[in-house]
Amino acid sequence: MTAAADPPRPARSGRRVLFGVAGLALVVLTFAFLLPRIADYRDVWDVIKTLSWAWAAVLAAATVLNILTFAPPWMVVLPGLGLRRALALTQASTALTYVVPGGAAVGVAGSFALLRSWGFQSGEVGRAVTLTGIWNQFANFTFPTDCSAAAGTR
Length: 154
Description:
By secondary structure, the protein is mostly helical.
């Protein structure tokens, strides 16, 4: 095989490094500047310290379950996506939605770009983004937001 038949891909690896650095910067920005404006880490830690080990395990399990429930819809609308990539997609788009100015539009654009970079065609990505977005909104409007009202304990 000649070098012309199999050229190196420096642009792709450079882009991967750039996105990795941008992702790390986003995480640092979120945890160092944005979240402290919403809640004091010491106050949160004080509450967590009051939990028994059983309630801490329940909280951890609920967190894992919450994260895992966002991947299957993407796996259904994009066969071949896989759990690992679906989890990465949902975490990245959610982070973009809540942290970057522009909100949901930026999250959708991030989803689209990430899925296209993984080789999915524009049409199937557009369909997937539309279907998951519609069903997420339907779920948000359908489920009760006030648990006490749903349980009749108001």
